[in-house]
Write a structure and sequence with these properties.
alpha+beta; 3 domains; four-stranded antiparallel sheet; 34% helix; 22% strand; disordered C terminus
């Protein structure tokens, strides 16, 4: 006898509702468990290590296993609820109707054999039962999806610490090289002077590297993944077009130099055209700010090669040459060195740096400094070393950077043009000489103004062959280029930040204390990520389909005035009054597979009827003699037409 509550008349209803509620509870528990793990780091500990030393189970394995357990229990509870509903509709579909035995067989085995779902006869005979069977077979999909909603991802964790960061100490003596001399003063005490010579090799290396690459050199951060904000004072240049008066002086000077370069040969006159010029003015005087000068009033023009200027000098009145403008459509820029304040955010992700300059304010201009001495107004000064004058040292450091920068730009690119003039021939020959400047190896050649010059300095500029052979040659893209003035300022800014990459320019922490900076150090750890929407999409679909099934099961319970199950006792009781359209032999009572064809094609009517004759039970006591089992094979009253139909599969 069944135990409470399965011995009640409404036991099927109780089982359907209780299983559904249990499934909902497991789904909610699954959600709460995963939600408690969401965003938490994955630990390397072994929670079960204390139970057995050889059991190596990580917390990730344990948590996923528990999630799978919740999904399994939810799926099992839903399966019990839907399968119980299926039993009610299956029994209802065969009661009181003549049904082929093979259809009854397949109907009650559809929950065990999924291939039976494709049997169209079952769908025609009992569509509701088959729909419930499909739901029951699809319920495990929810248990597959729901555990996978917990995943592991890398997430950043920030720690804020005070650290030393890369800086630039512009008071360092490592930017510029100097030479000193002892000055003999016949009218007073002797004094010595320290004079600026040139940028150091390290300064020149940084400038050349940045100009070639076009990007800020790699800076060594305090941590591979770190970020910080900093403000500092450093050099900057401002490049603007010269005023019209100075432009006139320069163009006339270049025109004179071109005119003086003319070489007259029989039938082949030629002259030199300048397509690029860079120089530093001697003084602020317009006459000495032009690129060419004449020695001792000679006819030859010589280009200025100094990399720094203008140098301080008493103003002189220079004469402006009255010449027509000979250089057309020239871009003439004037770049001045300034002190500037920088505000920047530096971010490093796996060592890859990103530097964002949030503010750059240009301050006072920097003038040329020859050097310093220890003689002031005829008297020796206590400041006998320029190293003690931080402002002077900063200016000299700025000056050395500008000197190295000017070394990349100073020079010229010329183009010689020759004319062949004969009675039958009138040709113009042009070829470009080797550029006499280092700018061609810098990123500045990609600017608007220099891209045109780049075509002139190309080795193939005078060679027509590449114009006809393009099969394996790559052409330069015609992407937009920045103007030269902006490119110069940006390049100098990149040089300023790249100085942080050199250990030679770092502060000397043993001499003076430098405040540390608040650095955000980012470390990446694995954390649990829970996708709640997917879990409830899976569980919600399964619970919704099951809820509809339970409602239908409750309705059919009231329709049947009771419930059924697939227990043997239920089958035994129902078939006592069954009518079968065929006779059973003694061999058929073995129940062995496969089902004989004549039984499979036979039709059976089951259901309670008070008119059924009383039959001898096959479960009579063993001490009583067995009678022939005729009752269990009662023939249905069939017409000849029914017999013909029953013989057709």
């Amino acid at each position: 006898m069944a135990l409470f509550p399965f011995n009640l008349k409404c036991s099927a209803v109780f089982l359907m509702i209780a299983s559904f509620l249990a499934a909902a509870a497991f789904a909610i528990g699954h959600d709460m468990f995963y939600q408690s793990l969401n965003g938490k780091p994955v630990l390397n500990a072994q929670p079960l290590a204390s139970l057995k030393s050889s059991l190596h189970v990580s917390d990730q394995q344990l948590y996923i296993s528990l999630g799978t357990f919740f999904a399994f229990m939810a799926k099992s509870s839903l399966g019990v609820s839907v399968s119980t509903t299926f039993d009610q509709f299956a029994w209802k579909s065969i009661q009181g109707e003549r049904t082929r035995i093979d259809i009854i067989d397949n109907l009650f085995s559809v929950l065990k054999n999924g291939f039976t779902v494709a049997n169209l006869r079952l769908w025609r005979h009992s569509p509701i039962s088959m729909t419930l069977a499909v739901i029951c077979w699809l319920l495990p999909v929810a248990s597959i999806i729901s555990p996978a909603t917990l995943s592991v991802q890398l997430a950043p964790f920030n720690v804020y610490v005070l650290k030393r960061i890369p800086r630039v100490d512009f008071t360092s003596a490592n930017f510029a090289s100097f030479f000193s001399a002892l000055a003999i003063n016949p009218r007073g005490p002797d004094f010595w002077a320290t004079l600026y010579k040139s940028p150091t090799a390290e300064t020149q290396r940084v400038v050349n590297s940045v100009a070639t690459q076009g990007t800020i050199l790699q800076i060594d951060p305090p941590a591979v993944n770190s970020s910080w904000s900093m403000g500092f004072y450093g050099p900057a240049i401002v490049c603007d077009k010269v005023n019209q008066s100075l432009a006139t002086h320069i163009t006339q000077n270049v025109a004179q130099a071109i005119h003086r370069s003319e070489v007259v040969k029989p039938d082949l006159p030629s002259f030199t055209r300048f397509v690029y010029l860079s120089w530093a003015p001697e003084t602020d005087n317009p006459v000495e700010s032009v690129p060419f000068y004449q020695n001792n009033r000679s006819d030859m023009f010589t280009q200025r090669w100094n990399q720094l200027g203008p140098q301080p000098k008493d103003p002189e009145d220079g004469l402006t040459l009255n010449m027509d403008q000979a250089v057309q459509n020239s871009t003439i820029l004037h770049c001045m060195l300034h002190n500037a304040s920088y505000q920047a955010n530096l971010t490093f992700v796996n060592g890859e740096q990103t530097i964002h300059v949030t503010d750059r304010t240009v301050l006072n201009p920097i003038v040329f400094i020859f050097g310093v001495d220890n003689h002031d107004n005829g008297k020796p000064t206590a400041n006998d070393s320029f190293v003690r004058n931080a402002q002077v040292m900063e200016s000299l450091s700025y000056q050395s950077i500008m000197d190295a920068f000017g070394g990349l730009l100073v020079g010229s690119i010329t183009s010689d043009i020759s004319f062949i003039e004969k009675p039958d021939v009138n040709l113009t020959l042009s070829y470009t000489e080797r550029p006499n400047t280092n700018i061609i190896s810098t990123i500045l050649m990609e600017t608007e103004e220099m891209r045109f010059i780049d075509s002139l300095t190309s080795p193939d500029s005078d060679n027509p062959f590449p114009k006809y052979w393009r099969g394996q040659s790559v052409s330069l893209s015609n992407h937009s280029s920045p103007p030269l003035s902006k490119a110069l300022e940006d390049l100098f800014r990149n040089i300023t930040f790249s100085l942080m990459s050199s250990n030679m320019f770092q502060p000397n922490y043993t001499v003076r204390a430098v405040p540390e900076t608040n650095v955000t150090i980012t470390s990446y750890h694995s954390i649990y990520i829970y996708t709640r929407s997917i879990l409830w999409a899976a569980y919600g679909t399964a619970l919704g389909a099951t809820a509809l099934s339970v409602i239908a099961g409750v309705l059919v319970y009231f329709s049947n005035d009771g419930s059924h199950s697939t227990k043997f006792s239920t089958v035994f009781r129902v078939t006592q009054g069954a009518k079968v359209s065929t006779n059973l032999s003694m061999k058929d009572y073995s129940g062995l597979d496969p089902l004989p064809d004549h039984i499979a094609k036979a039709k059976m009517t089951i259901g309670y009827s008070p008119d059924y004759p009383v039959r001898v039970s096959s479960t009579a006591p063993l001490d009583q003699p067995h009678q022939e089992p005729t009752a269990s094979s009662q023939l249905l009253h069939l017409t000849p037409g029914d017999l013909t139909k029953s013989s057709v599969p």
